[in-house]
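Re: duplicated header lines in exported structure tokens

Our pipeline writes sequence and tokens for each protein into one text file. With two proteins the header for the second block appears twice in some exports. Here is an export where it did not happen, for reference. First protein block:
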Amino acid sequence: MRPARDPSVHIAGHWKFSEAIAAINAKRNNKTEEDSREVSRIQFAGVYCNEEIGPYLPGPNIIRSLRNAANLAKKNRGGKDIDSARRG
């Protein structure tokens, strides 16, 4: 279940991410596990969420993830890693 958005951090269709995180982090010693999850959710929404298209992953991140997976698979089979094969 998604927590309700606090209207005090919503301005003109945009979240004031840093202020929302600062409000949670101001608790310092009284911060709960739920507070930590909320900070993570706000950070994710600020980087990988768009009001028009919704959640997304940038293309370079997908390409790098696929390349890392291929390198790991090749190394596990005793082959060269993809990046070094491309260079030489």
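Second protein block, exported in the same file:
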Amino acid sequence: MFPNALIPTVALGGVQLTLLLGGTVLVERIFSYEGIGNMAIDAVINRDFPLIQGLILTFAALFIALNLAVDVLVTVAGSEAAPWLTSPSACRLSARPD
């Protein structure tokens, strides 16, 4: 219905999802949930460096995968919202025939 509103909505949705992933550490600690965030805090307290490195690598991989998925969705949504930007005729220079 609103194709031009789809691109910023998808982009901001991706930002919100990354904030939710980062907020799980705090929520798990406050409400005593067992999860990767609580494990990360316990690893820092106990100075378990290999576990800290593995968890940071896991969080980084999740953030990269999520941002890649959002970028792909924005590209697909952009090509559907503005098809004239991705058409081959839009790339041609308008030259006068001699």
